[in-house]
Amino acid sequence: MNKWQLPFLAVFCFVSESIAVDVWPKGDWYIHYFFVPRFFLIFLVLTAMHFGGTRAMGYGFIFGFLYDCVYTELLGVYAFAYTLLAYLAGKATKWLQPNWLVSFLLSLLAIALLDSYVYGIQLLIGRTDWPFAVFWERRLWPTLLLNTAFLLIGLPVLERWLAKIRRLEQGE
Amino acid sequence: MPQFFGNKRLVFLLVSIVILVMLIGFSLRSREQLTWPEQFVKDAVGFVQLLFGKPAQLVAGFLENVNDLRHTYEENELLKARLEEYAALETEVEELRQENGRLRALLDKKESLRDFVPIQATVIGRNPDRWRETIIVNKGAQHGVKKDMAVITPAGLVGKVQHASQFTSTVQLLSALDQNNRISAYVQGKENVFGLIEGYDEKRRELLLGEIPIDAKVEKKQKVLTSGLGGVFPKGLPIGEVTEIKPGQYGLTKIVYVKPFANLYDIDDVIIVKRTIDAALQEEEEAK
Predict the structure, then answer these.
(1) Has residue B233 been placed in a domain?
(2) CA-to-CA distance for B129 and A35, rounded, in angstroms?
(3) Which CATH number do you get for residue B158?
(4) Rounded CA gap, B243 and B123, in Å?
(5) Which of A77, B52, B222, B254 is the most buried (most CB within 10 A)?
């Protein structure tokens, strides 16, 4: 039973991104600003901090690939980014004191990196012609804002849940 | 500076980047169909989405309803006024329909480009990163959905099927239309003017209808419908209304701005449109 808690949390975070966009009120704000939920990435960074980079990399690769297949139909982009970010988060935890502030900032940094990277790819393959300033104004800061709000509410819950899962696993 | 990557890992990273580039190249080719592993993954995730999404949608729907209640009185007044117009219009439509049927019978012409079979579908997910506005709906190839079919809401055209898996399919919204996915349309008037929906002006939130001859007569407020020429769209699906006419790039064509009837963003339930004439043709071919 305990074995399934972490995968369940992963699936939940993954699916909730799509649902969040679906139920988001579709007003002028939705059309002009791109609030991109990155709940799974937050989960990934926290997993890397609690369970080590290797395990997070596994999750990153599998769910990144799912993301590519199901949503963007551009294979490899998220699989690569999630795996790399999980690796870096795992490395970073080794010489950072793990506390809530660190996980908060690390998550935001990962989101900023991921979004800039995806923007770079879109620019490279010609699917967008936004200059960086527009990307910053319409995409990056709304995304960071939304995820900051999510972190303020969800981080304590996620942290506690992950800590509990880790304790249970160590107890076995 | 602490070392992030060892030598072995650096090589591994480089190899992954090469694979990444190859994969992107593979997915950028215009593909007729997704590979079966992709289809399988889509269907599986679609199922999970349905599981989690239904309760979320119910709650969101409830909140929306509460919000709607506040405007009920004004809306009700407006609708009452419209209802009388509607009754008159309906009798007229019925007469015209009967007449059309009689004339068709006279001509012995059974199928028309206009006829279609609606496939009702519900939105179960959206592309969260929204670099391409797509939605995922809960009907797929098993229900008769095919690539490029038109997707409408009761108000009008909203998009086309990008890829169909077995039990789910991805719909590309009109707001994400690119050069490779043009839609043949016409402006309804005394003489119909044909053109192609070429793109979406994000600032004005309007569609661009191009390839219209410079001497064609187009006026504001005229309606734009699908033409049913080319592709698998039926004829006569409403798209939008003309708002502005501008000369095109080289002065040989006109560009017409079209305000879509349907809300291209707020979409919960859609109808996938399957043209009957194709099914009839297929049957004929199979009979041979």
Answers:
(1) yes
(2) 8
(3) 2.40.10.350
(4) 30
(5) A77
Strands (DSSP E) along chain B, which ranges?
116-126, 134-137, 150-153, 156-164, 169-173, 183-187, 193-201, 206-213, 223-226, 238-247, 253-260, 269-275
Q: How confident is the model at residue B257 (pLDDT cuts 50, 70, 90)?
A: very high
- To test the contact with chain A by mutation, choose from B129, B147, B153, B180 the residue with the greatest count of A C-beta atoms within 10 A, namely B129
Between chains, do A21 and B16 touch, taking CB under 8 Å as contact?
Answer: no
CA distance A108 to chain B (A): 16
Predicted confidence (pLDDT) per residue in B235-252, tens digit: 889 999 999 998 877 878
The closest CB to that of B24, out of A11, A17, A76, belongs to A76
- Domain-embedded: residue A21: no
The owner of tokens 């049927």 is B101
B49 min Cα distance to partner chain A (Å): 6
Q: Would you say residue A69 lies in a domain?
A: yes
Cα angle value B197/B202/B207 (rounded, 5°): 20
For chain B, what percent of residues have pLDDT higher than 70?
95
pLDDT at res. B288: 67
Any bridge partners for residue B194, and if so which? B186
Give the amino acid at A16. S
> Percentage helix, strand, coil, to 5, in chain B?
40, 30, 35
Instruction: Measure the CA–CA gap between A48 and B108, rounded to whole angstroms.
Output: 70
Range of the domain at A100: 2-13+35-165
Q: Does B87 touch chain A (CB under 8 A)?
A: no
What is the distance in angstroms between the Cα of A78 and the nearest Cα belonging to chain B? 10
User: B284: domain range?
Assistant: 32-70+111-288
Give me the pLDDT at residue A48, please. Answer: 93
Question: What's the structural domain count of chain A?
Answer: 1
In total, the C-beta contacts within 8 angstroms joining chain A to chain B are 110
Whole-number mean pLDDT of chain B? 86
Tokens found for residue B131? 């670099």
